[in-house]
């Protein structure tokens, strides 16, 4: 007798739940629906329309003040006594480039640098008629992040700096 009284409310609840579930916005892998909007949740990182977790030894950087690129993922794949081998990509997980940075210890913190292009292996159009090749310099911080400065040098003359930006890569 008591069970039969519960059938109608349980059926109604199941129908309402099904209708609500159908109305939820479908989001791409990694994203969640919040108020009918797809968002990349805390603990995941977004770049180029991809929302994902970081792999071990991987860093994420948002670079809103840098020309030509606004986000990327940077993964250290080998630490040597004088070098760091890395791989980076723009968010899809597919490696865009792999290379070696100089690694050196200083009293103010361990540093990495390449002095040549890092972010894209290509020149970046800074403004009409001015191109810059990115040069990367980073310093490991006590919180596990890497503070980065990118200098964009011109291919004209004696390689003057035509732009620069700074950002922090976080894990």
Tell me about this structure.
With 171 residues, this protein is mainly β. It has 2 domains: 2-33; 43-169, Lipocalin, CATH 2.40.128. The chain is 13% helix and 44% strand. The chain contains 1 helix and 13 strands; from the N terminus they run H-E-E-E-E-E-E-E-E-E-E-E-E-E. The protein has one helix at residues 2-23, and strands at 32-34, 37-39, 45-47, 50-52, 58-62, 71-79, 83-89, 97-104, 111-113, 124-127, 130-140, 146-153, 161-169. Strands 5, 6, 7, 8, 9, 10, 11, 12 and 13 form a 9-stranded antiparallel sheet that branches. A two-stranded antiparallel ribbon has the order 1-2. It has a two-stranded antiparallel sheet with strand order 3-4. Strand 11 and strand 12 (146-153) form a beta hairpin. The radius of gyration is 23 Å and the shape is globular.
Can you name the CATH architecture of the largest domain? Beta Barrel
* Overall pLDDT level: 78
| CATH topology category name of the largest domain | Lipocalin
Poorly predicted spans: 18-23
Number of helices: 1
Structural class: mainly beta
CA radius of gyration is 23 Å
- Write down the overall geometry: globular
How many discrete structural domains? 2
Number of β-strand runs:
13
Along the chain, the helix and strand elements come as HEEEEEEEEEEEEE
> Sheet bearing the most strands, described?
9 strands, antiparallel
The percent range for helix content is 10-25%
Task: Report how far the terminal alpha carbons are from each other.
Answer: 58 Å
Strand-residue fraction? 35-45%
The CATH C-level name of the largest domain is Mainly Beta
């Amino acid at each position: 007798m008591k069970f039969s009284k519960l059938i109608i409310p349980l059926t109604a609840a199941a129908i309402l739940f099904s209708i609500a579930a159908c109305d939820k916005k479908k989001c791409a892998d990694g994203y969640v629906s919040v108020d009918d909007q797809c968002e990349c949740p805390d603990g995941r990182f977004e770049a180029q329309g991809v929302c994902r977790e970081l792999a071990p030894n991987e860093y994420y950087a948002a670079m809103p003040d840098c020309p030509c690129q606004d986000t990327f993922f940077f993964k250290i794949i080998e630490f040597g006594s004088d070098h760091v081998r890395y791989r980076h990509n723009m968010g899809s997980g597919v490696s865009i480039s792999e290379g070696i940075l100089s690694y050196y210890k200083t009293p103010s913190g361990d540093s990495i640098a390449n002095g040549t292009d890092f972010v894209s292996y290509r020149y970046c159009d800074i403004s009409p008629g001015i191109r810059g090749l990115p040069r990367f310099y980073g310093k490991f911080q006590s919180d596990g992040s890497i503070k980065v400065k990118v200098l964009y040098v011109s291919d004209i003359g004696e390689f003057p700096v035509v732009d620069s930006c700074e950002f922090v890569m976080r894990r």
